[in-house]
Each structure stands twice: as C-alpha cells, then as structure tokens.
Write a structure and sequence with these properties.
Elements (H helix, E strand, L loop, with lengths): L1 H21 L1 H7 L10 E7 L47 E7 H12 L12 E12 L9 H15 L18 E11 L1 E9 L6 H21 L2 E9 L3 E4 L1 H6 L8 H15 L6 E8 L6 H18 L3 E6 L7 H10 L6 E6 L5 H9 L4
Parallel strand pairs: 5-6, 5-8, 8-9, 9-10
Antiparallel strand pairs: 1-2, 3-4, 6-7
Length: 369
C-alpha cells in the first residue's frame, strides 16, 4: 500500500512538473511565484488539474435503494432548482495550488532552457560538516544496528563453541554479537558565490522596468542557488551616485536625477575587493539599465573599469537593457561595439518587455560560467 501511494505521488509530481514546464513562459512573464516564495518552497497555482473527489447530493433527494422507484429509473434526480444569473458558455477555472522546492523549480528551468551546469572557479571556502559512516562498532543505538555483521558475529561464535547445528540452524545473537555502524564528522568544502545586482533608478526607469528586473532576478537566483552551496546577494542602486541597499529598497526606489553608471561599477569593484577575493569566490555582477548614461566620458570610464578590474574578478559580467520609452539604449550599443556578441566574460541581453524575460535568462545563464 505504501509503495502504491509513493508511486501515485511521484506520478502526480511528474504531471505537475510537466504542466509547469509547458506553461513556464506564462509563469515567468506574470511573476506569479515571487509573491508566494518561502524560504525553501514556492506555491504555484496550477490550472486544469482536478483531483477526483466525491460529491454528495442533498439528503432529501434519496439514493440507491431508497424511496419509491422502478428498475431503470434515473438515480438521484431531485426537483429542479432555480438558478441565479444568466447561463454562460465558458468552463469554470479550476486552480490547484502545489508546493515545489526551489531545487525542483531550478530543474524545470534548466531542462526547459537547456542550461548547462556551471563549472565553478576559485578555491573552495564554504565548510559544511556531515556524518559519514566509516566503520563498525560494538556499541551504538538500535537504529544503527548492522544486521549482517551481527549475524556473522553470532554465527562465528556458535561455530567456534560447537553450538551450531547445521541440521537445525538457529542463529540467536546475544549482546556481545551486536555490531553497529559507526561514523565520524567529515568536513566538506563547497563552492560559494556572490551575486551583485546593480540597477539604474533614475527617472527613466519606471515601475514596469523594475518589475521586469525583479522577476528576472528571482529566476537567476533560483538557478544559481541550485549550482552553489553558499550564495550571497548584494544590491546596488545608482543614478548620478551609487549606494548599497537591501532587497526591498532595491526594487522600490525611484530617483529623478541623472545617470552615471561608473558610480555603480566603482562601488561594485570596492565591494569585491573588500569582501570577495576572486580566488575564493565565484562572482556574478548583473547590471540592469535602460541604456542612458550621462556622457561618453563616463561610458569610457565604465569600459576601463570593466577591462582593468571587474572582468578579471568575475566569472561573467551580465548587462541587461530593459527597454524604456525614455531610454536611448546607447550604453548597450557601446558595450556591443567594444565586446561583441561572443565575448568570453561579457554577456549582453535586451529585454523589450515581460515576454523577453525567458530569453534574457537563457542569454545570461546559457554559457554555464
């Protein structure tokens, strides 16, 4: 019975994953899961999957074997009820809320976008301790009893004492025969990473652009956390100046000043140099903007910071241009002219609207760096 339940549950989970994969673009576009995110789980509303259930009629309607009737009469046909409202021709919406782990969600994303596994760089610095069973002990809890070794010890004792009868074999362990699995704590070193998000919050970046960044950042986080044991996330906002903020402030702040992108790159550089030695960390800077910068001189300074510092320290540097009616998009053009489409450490992506989020995620994560 238990195995049957497990098979049915696994089959249901497989159906759910298939449904999410089929409608992945819709979930990414609408950002439905971000507001339902817990520490380890995401609650997802799945349409068009109904769980079978019994429906009971009113007691007054009677049933099989009750009341008057003849063979062949319809069962459960009560008096007609008056309805409310006008008749419709559309099916009702049936939503089933299903919990998925972020790891399962990352697997779905990776399969659908054909994302390669990331090959980490740098030294392994995050330490985690696990218990590894390495031997056999003569004492321990019953839950760790090693039955095969206990049987062998009992058999060996009975043979050596002459108590073993091959005609009527009966192996009865005593206390000194008991053997238990023993363990020791093993320290494992795990690759760790930091994601540094930078975003232009000048007047030309509106709520729609910030929502696109927020949605894309959720999926980027989900994938990278599936690849690394330890992840830290930092947030930088900038207009003419840059400052570090928390996640909530990052997605809600809007300024009205000009834009100096170099201010964010300088702060990012300082953050890495202070807290994240490239030899120990996998570093992922993501910059989102509508492509406006104050001057060509500042763009030149940005390119110098990238060449001399940020690209050398980062696994990959990602720039996402979120289209805005007020943004010129010039910074994207300058980066593309400098680095082209196939640069080893610079990935450029344009996000014209919410429909473009999925492709942008594939642009950023598709190289497996």
């Amino acid at each position: 019975m238990i195995n049957s339940i497990k098979r049915d549950h696994a089959r249901f989970r497989s159906i759910v994953k298939g449904k999410i994969k089929q409608d992945l673009k819709k979930y990414v576009t609408h950002g439905e899961m971000i507001g339902r995110k817990g520490k380890e789980l995401v609650t997802i509303p799945i349409p068009q999957i109904e769980i079978p259930r019994f429906r009971f009629g009113d007691k007054e309607q009677g049933g099989v074997g009750q009341g008057e009737g003849k063979a062949g009469d319809p069962v459960g046909q009560g008096d007609p009820q008056e309805g409310e409202g006008q008749a419709g021709n559309q099916a009702g919406d049936h939503l089933l809320e299903v919990d998925l782990t972020l790891q399962e969600l990352a697997e779905i994303l990776g399969e659908e976008l054909e994302l390669p596994k990331i090959e980490p760089r740098g030294h392994k610095t995050v330490k985690s301790k696990t218990d590894k069973y390495t031997g056999i002990a003569m004492q321990g809890p019953d839950s760790l009893r090693h039955f095969k070794r206990t049987f062998k010890e009992s058999l060996r004792r009975q043979i050596s004492t002459g108590a073993y009868n091959p005609e009527k074999p009966l192996i009865v362990p005593i206390k000194r025969d008991m053997r238990y699995r023993s363990w020791k704590a093993v320290t494992r070193h795990e690759n760790n990473a930091v994601i540094i998000y930078m975003m232009d919050v000048s007047g030309s970046m509106g709520d729609e652009q910030k929502e696109i960044v927020r949605t894309e950042a959720f999926w980027i986080d989900t994938w990278l956390r599936s690849q690394y044991k330890g992840i830290e996330t930092r947030y930088i906002i900038h207009d003419a100046t840059a400052r570090e903020v928390d996640e909530e402030t990052f997605f809600k702040t809007r300024e009205s000043g000009g834009t100096l992108i170099s201010s964010a790159y300088k702060l990012c550089e300082k953050m890495i140099q202070t807290d994240y030695p490239p030899s120990d960390w996998n570093i992922y800077p993501f910059h989102f903007s509508d492509g406006d910068n104050w001057s060509g001189e500042d763009t030149k300074l940005c390119l110098e910071l990238l060449d001399q510092s940020l690209l050398r320290m980062s696994n990959v540097f990602c720039y996402g241009q979120v289209e805005s009616r007020y943004g010129s998009g010039q910074f994207y053009k300058d980066l593309k002219e400098k680095y082209g489409d196939d640069h080893e450490s610079v990935i450029l992506s344009k996000v014209e609207n919410k429909e473009g989020i999925l492709q942008s995620i594939k642009d950023f994560l598709g190289k497996g760096k």
